Amino acid sequence: QGKQKKARKYAVMKRMISLRDERLKEKDRAKAPVKKKEDPSAIKEREDPQHPSCLFFQYNTQLGPPYHILVDTNFINFSIKAKLDLVQSMMDCLYAKCIPCITDCVMGEIEKLGQKYRVALRIAKDPRFERLPCMHKGTYADDCLVQRVTQHKCYIVATVDKELKRRIRKIPGVPIMYISRHRYNIERMPDDYGAPRF
């Protein structure tokens, strides 16, 4: 003879006693939350994010030649694959002097990649590159670049990483440089914003 299958009961929960139940002893009972009375004479504080003074709507007035370009790890690697000279290609793209900036965490990321990326490391140690010190722990560069660009709006971010691009697009007034068709392109520059020209 076969066993009769018992149907499982779904969504059945064990009944639990409430912490405010009168059957509980006084010491085990949960205390009712005490509401603080608001002082009507107290000044109400509201935190609004401070908007940077360099922005005229979406137009960033801090961007101008010489352009400071924050370089990401994958941007250097893709430049090598596309056989592009970093500084020269940046100048060809923007028609102005460019100063590539590299943070300590980006440098750490390239060093971690090992022997395979020694050419990228040599390019990153170029004296034309400006080195920016980092105070945070670890070598995750994306958070560092986003934070730096949020605080100081004077940078253009050079990256090929889709996730980082998506995060930077949310920050107003920050252009993105990327590689397509074996040349550097810029996603948005001050002339695109439609600000008045004087």
UniProtKB/TrEMBL annotation:
Keywords: Nucleus, Ribosome biogenesis, rRNA processing
Region called Disordered, residue ranges: 21-48
InterPro entries in the cross-refs: Fcf1/UTP23, Fcf1_PIN, PIN-like_dom_sf, PIN_dom
Lineage: superkingdom: Eukaryota
Subunit structure: Part of the small subunit (SSU) processome, composed of more than 70 proteins and the RNA chaperone small nucleolar RNA (snoRNA) U3.
Family: Belongs to the UTP23/FCF1 family. FCF1 subfamily.
Protein name: rRNA-processing protein FCF1 homolog
